[in-house]
Amino acid sequence: MQWWSAAQKEHQQRLVLYRLRGFPPWPGLVVRTKSRQYLQSPMNPLAPPDDSIFDRGIQKGDTVTAGVWLNAERRPTLEDPAPQKKEKAKILKVGPKWVRVLYKKTGETSQIPKSWCELLSQCILQHQNTGKVKRATGKVRDVALRGSKRGVVPSGYVVVYSYGDEMYRKVLARSLIRYTPEVVTEQKYRKKSLRHCLKKVDKRGFNGARALKEIKAEWDRRERARQERQQQEATAREYRAHHGLEQPPTPAPAEREPADRAADRAASKRPLPADPPTAKRHTAQPSQASQTAHARCVATPLVNHARSASAHLQGHMVPYHEQLEGTDVQHISTSDLEEARLLLRLEKGFSVSELHRARRLLALEKHPDKAPAHLKDFRHREWLKIDAAFTMLKATA
């Protein structure tokens, strides 16, 4: 079921500063639009969120199991423990810490702490886990599922992962501030810089210095990835330009003829002009520069070595299997071999047959095809490491 809103899809994976009552604007990361199963699994690199973050919470008109206050001499307080006796009740009014409920069995109304109320869906789930009921059916099932609103973040809100305390919060999307290192320095909070205020926060599980450090590390990681991507794109463009693989520019779409001119042309029955011969010549055969560049591509490694361009653009391309099985010495460190041997659970001095047997045993245990649906991606990455270790050990055996 899709839990996210349109705002979540728009702001996903964005580093932000969000409003938090009693604290300066806090660093966070807008959670990407993945399934709840993925976010709560070990594949999520962040801390797994709780089920309650996806639910809309207690609202007016909900059916809950509420504690019954039996002491008629005084009203309940927030410090009082929840009573053992509970009954079904309907929410009449919701406040920050209190709710007013109508008990369905007795018809009485009472104002009790919100912590005494539990949504019926959560109560049914607890009964199922303890074996008290096998399945919620009929009207109880409809109330338990709470229709299409169950597990849906309200419109206009986004789920944000909070740095420094590893918590998830629902925040209004319009209150988000996009994070940059300059914003943290220039933004003011109570006439002081935001960086200074965050570094002073260390209470109730909130650590501003750690939050700043974590979001800055994520910012630097993204900047490095962006620079590497730009470098790879520049290298690819240089490679294509050297080998004459550049795509010809796409011709602009022809403008539509005005209606009055089209009518005049139809009335005079004049034929339309033919396509220019340059377009036919361009589509029929490649240019002379492209043919010359293609001729330069076909060369021996010795000629490639003597050229002026860089070797990674003009070098002789050797297939991967020839690299492994060729006569050249493969430069593999001893630490890599030892790590590959431990990954395949082999003893020192193993034979080729033992190597193949170890790979087959690991395939029975960790192959992606034998994993459940929510672990296939994780098992796929793990199997790639095993396969690479097997190839390395086989090449050096």
UniProtKB/TrEMBL annotation:
Biased amino acid composition, Basic and acidic residues:
220-245, 254-267
InterPro entries named among the record's database cross-references: J_dom_sf
Q: Region labeled Disordered — which residues?
A: 220-295
Composition bias type Polar residues, residue spans: 284-293
Annotated protein name in UniProt = Uncharacterized protein
Give the organism, scientific name.
Answer: Symbiodinium natans
Instruction: Tell me the lineage of the source organism.
Output: Eukaryota, Sar, Alveolata, Dinophyceae, Suessiales
